[in-house]
Amino acid sequence: MAKTNLVGSGNTPVYTGNDTECGLLVMANTLGAKGKSLDYASEDQPYKDIRRKYPENQEGRKQFTFSSDRKRMSTRIKVGDKYRIFTKGAAEMVLDLCTKRMMPDGSIETFDTAARAEVKKVISNFADEALRTICLAYRETDKAVEDVAEAEQDLTMIGLVGIEDPVRVEVPDAIKDCQDAGIVVRMVTGDNMQTAAAIAKK
After folding, report:
1. E strands within the chain?
2. pTM confidence score
3. For the chain, what is the largest distance between any 2 Cα atoms, rounded to a whole number of angstroms?
4. Which letter, b or e, does each residue of 70-108 get, where b requires 16 or more Cβ atoms within 10 Å of its Cβ?
5. Which residue, of 28, 49, 76, 92, is most buried by count of CB atoms within 10 Å of its CB?
6. Contact between 6 and 45 (Cβ < 8 Å)
């Protein structure tokens, strides 16, 4: 996410880079600030503190880039004498790779059938609200895993994030104009089918 940043003045951020990535940075800042006010013109922001602690040139760091087939990306960092791999991506696909989940108190529990069904219900509800749903997960290893398939397995789910990607105001009228002209409109998207259907209804 190093190509994305939050700038601006006072507590109003201005996105530079991918909107979804910037939305995650806003979340990281909000959680990291713990109720304190933020100055987006300052270098003293929680997400920037994390970047300084784990820079791109950190020894042992590796990025497993996003692919449309996997619908996720991962980053490996070194923490002490171990490695931690963070994964984010399409919720339904990352969830399938998770065997455990982190609870609100920080404890870890194994995913059973009921817990997995509970999370899938949340994903479905987010999709019905036209939210792009992202699952955040991680795992720890004793070695620097180089293979992406090996890196992205036996994950622990940290949480789900629902991000709204609002329909631009001019889109409904443009679609109507096309339909009035006899043009059949089709939507092509990489989103979850439920999310795509909810956006189409808007």
Report:
1. 5-9, 12-16, 62-67, 72-79, 82-90, 98-102, 108-110, 131-141, 155-164
2. 0.82
3. 64
4. bbbbbbbbeeeeebbbbbbbbbbbbbebbebbbeeeeee
5. 76
6. yes
